[in-house]
Structures are given as structure tokens and as C-alpha cells.
């Protein structure tokens, strides 16, 4: 992480706000090298209401076992600060998130934060995102690379930056939304919004989950806010982005739009 992006310690919140039940849902597939650092950073935040739920798809590198060991360590004092949801096969980022977010809400989270396990997303912005949600009543707070103040890793080549920008403009343009980082994966959700969205009925298996979730939230009338973040390159290991995931992301905005148009016809329930 380059020095000028490091910020002061997480913004202090009123003590009452810091106790808000907030679950960070973190999907993992082969993140053994990254998970311990991530868990440590989250547990050190001045947010006593925060807990971590790792959703592991039976990673061959043993991430699931490491997650269990970490949970044992952080749950030592009889408080559940970390849980692990083990799934048997790798069936996509979207499905992993839907399962984890559903469980977090069932277990009593008032807010759920989505976060990658690879060090790309800044843990020190979480308090601020929660603060924005609590202060404004917004049900969705996007950690945004594309609002003023948002930045991308210096390690990203120009073509990668352009591709990311383009992917955002593509999805937002087709769906007619004004969210500037609709593809981003660092987002805070109220439990109320997650219940309304009906996670079980999502169409996305993979990364297009990010777009579908925000689109549904907007259609259901929830307010989406964006706060700037710095997006860092992954710390270790490899990206799980592949061609199948990319094709789904190209097709999904069209699919969502035509579904919305069909639902808008008389006699059909809008979705
Ligand atoms: N459980 C689970 N996690 C996944 C899957 N695909 C990706 N992830 C995790 O989702 C996060 C984002 O994936 P990553 O490979 O970093 O995507 P990128 O940032 O777009 O390159 C990481 O924490 C991955 O380990 C999956 O199929 N199942
Ligand atoms: Mg990543």
C-alpha cells in the first residue's frame, strides 16, 4: 500500500454507534495467505459490534481450516466475533455472498458489509461507512472508487483502469442508474434492504451480483450513497476472475433490464 493513501485511524464514531451489530461477510477461495491479516485488521477496529463471517468454498489451500483457527482465537472470551460458513463447492462469488448475507441477517446483524479477503478494500473506512448509514438513514453505502476522492492502486496499468471504468459505465448506462461504482464489491447494507431484496431469488452466480444487488435496491426505493475509498491491488494470491464470470457480467445488465421491462407491463409485479 503506498504511503500517501494511508489515512488516520478509523474515524471514531459515537460509542453507541460503534456497538451496532455489524457483520462483515467475506467470501474466500484460496486466500490462506491473506485471511489472517484481514481478520486481525477487522478485530482491531474500534467497533465492538463488528463480527466477521467468512464464507469458504472448500478452498484447496486450506483457507477453511485457517478460518476455523482464527475463529477459535477471536472467540476466546466467550463472545462470538468470528464465524465460518463452509460450502462444499466453488459455485461463485454471488452465491457465496447470498448465503453469507442471509445467515448474517438471520443471526441478528443490523448491517452487513461485503468485503474481499485479498487486502483490496480498506478496513479503516468501515466505521465511516457505518457512520454515514446511521447518520443519514441510507440503506446502502457504497465504498466507491469513482466518486471524487476515490482512487485506484498505483500498480494498475492504464488499460486495467480504463476497463474498470468502462465496465461501470456499461452497467450503469444500460440500467439507467446514477451509481458511480456499481460494479464495486465493498458495500454496506441495512438488514432491512437485504430482507427486501430477497437474496434467494438473485440471478447472478458470479461478480455481476454486485450490479444486480444495487439495481434491486434502487428499484425497491432504497437510498444508495457513495463514499470515496482507495482500492488497493490484492496483497497475495491470484484473482478468481475468469472468462465465464466476465461473460455473465456482460450479459447481466441486459437481462436485468429486460426483466424489469417485462415486470413493468400491466398485471405483473415489478422487480
Ligand atoms: N467463496 C467464494 N469466494 C470467492 C469466489 N470467487 C471469488 N471469491 C472471493 O471473492 C473475493 C474477490 O475475488 P477476487 O479474485 O479478488 O476478484 P477480483 O478482485 O475481481 O480480482 C476474494 O476474497 C475471493 O477469494 C467463489 O466462487 N466462492
Ligand atoms: Mg480482488
TrEMBL record:
Keywords: Glycosyltransferase, Transferase. SUPFAM superfamilies: Nucleotide-diphospho-sugar transferases. Residues 23-195 form the Glycosyltransferase 2-like domain. One of its GO terms (biological process) is glycolipid biosynthetic process. It comes from the Bacteria. GO terms for cellular component: membrane. Pfam families: Glycos_transf_2 (PF00535). The keyword Manganese does not apply. GO terms for molecular function: dolichyl-phosphate beta-D-mannosyltransferase activity. InterPro entries: DPM1-like, Glyco_trans_2-like, Nucleotide-diphossugar_trans. The keyword tRNA-binding does not apply. Belongs to the glycosyltransferase 2 family. This is Polyprenol monophosphomannose synthase.
Amino acid at each position: 500500500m503506498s504511503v500517501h493513501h494511508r489515512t488516520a485511524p478509523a474515524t471514531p464514531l459515537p460509542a453507541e454507534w460503534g456497538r451496532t451489530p455489524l457483520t462483515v461477510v467475506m467470501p474466500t477461495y484460496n486466500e490462506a495467505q491473506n485471511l489472517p491479516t484481514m481478520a486481525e485488521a477487522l478485530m482491531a477496529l474500534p467497533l465492538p459490534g463488528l463480527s466477521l463471517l467468512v464464507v469458504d468454498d472448500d478452498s484447496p489451500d486450506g483457507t477453511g481450516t485457517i478460518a476455523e483457527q482464527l475463529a477459535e482465537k477471536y472467540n476466546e472470551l466467550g463472545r462470538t466475533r468470528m464465524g465460518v460458513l463452509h460450502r462444499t463447492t466453488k459455485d461463485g462469488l454471488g452465491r457465496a455472498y447470498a448465503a453469507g448475507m442471509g445467515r448474517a441477517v438471520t443471526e441478528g446483524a443490523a448491517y452487513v458489509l461485503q468485503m474481499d479477503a485479498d487486502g483490496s478494500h480498506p478496513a479503516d473506512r468501515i466505521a465511516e461507512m457505518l457512520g454515514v448509514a446511521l447518520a443519514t438513514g441510507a440503506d446502502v453505502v457504497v465504498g466507491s472508487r469513482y466518486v471524487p476522492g476515490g482512487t485506484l492502486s498505483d500498480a494498475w496499468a492504464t488499460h486495467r483502469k480504463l476497463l474498470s471504468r468502462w465496465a461501470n459505465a456499461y452497467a450503469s448506462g444500460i440500467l439507467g442508474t446514477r451509481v458511480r461504482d456499481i460494479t464495486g464489491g465493498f458495500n454496506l447494507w441495512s438488514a432491512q434492504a437485504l430482507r427486501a431484496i430477497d437474496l434467494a431469488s438473485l440471478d447472478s452466480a458470479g461478480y455481476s451480483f454486485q450490479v444486480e444487488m444495487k439495481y434491486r435496491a434502487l428499484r425497491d426505493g432504497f437510498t444508495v450513497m457513495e463514499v470515496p475509498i482507495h482500492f488497493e491491488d490484492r496483497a497475495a494470491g491470484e484473482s478468481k476472475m475468469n472468462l465465464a464470470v466476465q461473460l455473465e457480467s456482460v450479459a447481466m445488465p441486459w437481462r436485468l433490464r429486460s426483466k424489469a421491462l417485462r415486470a413493468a407491463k400491466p398485471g405483473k409485479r415489478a422487480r
